[in-house]
Design a protein that fits this description.
Distance between the termini: 60 Å
InterPro entries: AP2_Mu_C_sf (IPR036168), AP_mu_sigma_su (IPR022775), Coatomer_dsu (IPR027059), Longin-like_dom_sf (IPR011012), MHD (IPR028565)
Number of domains: 4
CATH superfamily of the largest domain: Mu homology domain, subdomain B
Membrane topology: Peripheral membrane protein
Helix content: 25-40%
Oligomer: single chain
Family: Belongs to the adaptor complexes medium subunit family. Delta-COP subfamily.
Protein name: Coatomer subunit delta
Subunit structure: Oligomeric complex that consists of at least the alpha, beta, beta', gamma, delta, epsilon and zeta subunits.
Number of helices: 10
Radius of gyration: 34 Å
CATH topology of the largest domain: Immunoglobulin-like
Number of strands: 25
CATH class of the largest domain: Mainly Beta
CATH architecture of the largest domain: Sandwich
């Protein structure tokens, strides 16, 4: 037998889909299907096949439709009917309902099963289960490939993050006064008693990549140990305090070679985000991360904001509480913000009243002095939408006698960000093996990274004080080679009312007596992928 085409039509003659297995044009198939309707309408036979002078039509009605096989007249009618039955089984297995929309929705799955049954016009020796297996294997392979591709993208992103963190770690090492050779001078000599140092490095390496709760627990333990050491040795200095005190000790213009080894201890390099002593028993922390793509002219291409509201309780008497958010600053029913509450939080109460409380009023928040994320949100911005952009950046590129000069303009977006300042602003230009110099402005060249490029640093930026600086890059002629430029910044210790989307606590109430209780609050902001393209 030779199957020329397999089709599905309505009983009124409307073609819905068709697969040709031989070289037949669409117009020819349409003509044959139209002829089929005339033959069926005029046929008094009880058989489910009709013929004309050229082809044979083997068909099967189901609901308001026909499944039709168009074969040559010399084919074996018994085999034709057996093939038709297999076509019918695959269609029934694919469709959930029998209407045109369902057929159109599953058109590609139906045609895929047709291709498994017929190859080059001839039937394959397959069962329905084998056809379904083959189709699922194809989808499985595609899914595996998608997972591999996502994994590669994630690895590349993580590698960029590690490189940026390494730059920041090296910068903090230099702030401690060691210079470019500090990483070698600080290492213990061979044969010395350095077990404690190695253990500390191992703990730092592990907890730098652990969960937020584990990091906070480890930091809390470190603080307790430091307090005990200070009581025993009051004249010794804390390493963390030394880093903070030397934060501004770097001289401008120093250039050093920055390595590309991934950083192992990133707790301090993330902006020294230290939570205050929780004297009141309750701490509210708003953490937000912003990603954005900005054109060279300063226009916004896309942006994404992710945030989490964390609750930390260290006293059991404050376990049964509810958080009243400020409804004047944000609409909790707005579709622009994708809010998601913790599974144990009463979502209905949150959407109606902006209150974060437990579903079960008999239960309490865990008083374990660990941060618990109770609310998450996500907002995306499209083209020319700067509603969640904290830092505006634009660039000007011009030719110089030795290469190209890039002028950076940057300022806080007063319409969306009321944080007052941003700290540790880095601009990373992806030019390798080049010489650069700041010709005007307050920027500092911090080094040349083997993978990232030229690293420029601006200490901080205040509200209402825009910044400008020029950097000249020698022996570069192609402007496109300067982009994309990565920008990093943080606001590690913002006040409680700083939030790009407006999520702030108004008051916290004891659910047992309805009385407000005192609490402490802070907010943090940092960037993820913030690039100028």
């Amino acid at each position: 037998m030779v199957v020329l085409a397999a089709s599905i039509t309505t009983r009124a003659g409307k073609p819905l889909l068709s697969r040709q297995f031989k070289d037949i044009t669409k117009d020819r198939v349409t003509e044959l299907l139209s002829n089929f309707q005339n033959l069926v309408a005029n046929s008094n036979s009880q058989h489910t096949f009709v013929e004309d002078e050229h082809v044979r039509y083997v068909y099967k009605p189901f609901e308001d439709f026909f499944i039709i096989l168009i074969t040559n007249r010399q084919s074996n009618i018994i085999q034709d009917l057996d093939t038709l039955n297999l076509f019918s089984q695959t269609v029934n297995a694919t469709l959930r309902g029998f209407d045109e929309n369902d057929i159109f929705h599953n058109a590609f799955e139906i045609l895929g099963s047709f291709d498994e049954i017929i190859s080059m016009g001839y039937k394959e020796n397959l069962s329905l289960s084998q056809i379904q297996t083959f189709l699922s294997m194809e989808s499985h392979e595609e899914m595996i490939q998608e997972i591999i591709d996502r994994g590669k993208e994630f690895d590349a992103k993580e590698q960029r993050k590690r490189a940026a963190k390494e730059i920041m770690r090296k910068e903090h090492d230099r702030r401690m006064g060691g210079g470019q050779y500090s990483e070698y001078l600080d290492q213990p000599k061979f044969g010395t008693n350095n077990n404690q140092t190695n253990m500390n490095d191992a703990y730092n390496s592990y907890y730098s990549n652990a969960s937020n709760a584990a990091q906070q627990s480890y930091q809390h333990l470190q603080k307790q140990q430091q307090q005990q050491q200070q009581q025993q040795h009051p004249h010794q200095h804390s390493p963390v305090a030394e880093v903070a005190s030397t934060h501004t000790s770097q001289k401008r213009g120093r250039i050093s070679k920055i390595g590309s080894t991934p950083a192992s201890n990133i707790i301090i390099t993330q902006g020294l985000i230290d939570e205050p002593e929780n004297t009141s028993g309750v701490l509210i922390t708003t953490k937000e991360t912003i990603s954005a793509q900005i054109t060279r002219e300063g226009d916004i291409t896309s942006s994404e904001l992710k945030g989490v509201l964390e609750l930390r309780v260290n006293d059991s008497q404050y376990g049964k509480i509810s958080i009243q958010l400020d409804s004047n600053k944000v609409d909790f029913k707005s579709k622009a913000l994708n809010f998601k509450t913790h599974p144990n939080i009463d979502k209905k109460q949150f959407l109606q009243d902006g209150v974060i409380g437990l579903k079960d009023s008999n239960k309490s928040f865990p008083p374990n002095d660990q941060s618990l994320g109770v609310l998450r949100w996500r907002k995306t911005g499209g083209s020319d939408d700067d509603s969640i952009i904290p830092l505006k950046v634009s660039t000007w590129v011009s030719e110089s006698s030795n290469g190209l000069t890039v002028t950076f303009e940057y300022e806080l977006n007063e319409d969306s960000y009321n944080g007052g300042q941003l700290q540790d602003i880095y601009f990373i230009i992806p030019i390798l093996n080049a010489t650069a110099s700041v010709t005007d402005g307050d920027a500092i060249i911090k080094g040349y990274d083997d993978e990232q490029g030229i690293v420029l640093y601006v200490k901080d930026l205040q509200q209402g004080e825009p910044g400008v600086f020029n950097v000249e890059i020698e022996n570069v002629e192609d402007e496109d080679s300067l982009f994309p430029i990565n920008v990093t910044f943080i606001n590690p210790n913002g006040s409680s009312d700083i939030s790009l989307c407006g999520v702030t606590a108004d008051q916290i109430v004891n659910t047992e007596d309805g009385q407000p209780i005192e609490y402490q609050a802070l907010s943090t902001l940092k960037n993820d992928e913030y690039v100028v393209v």
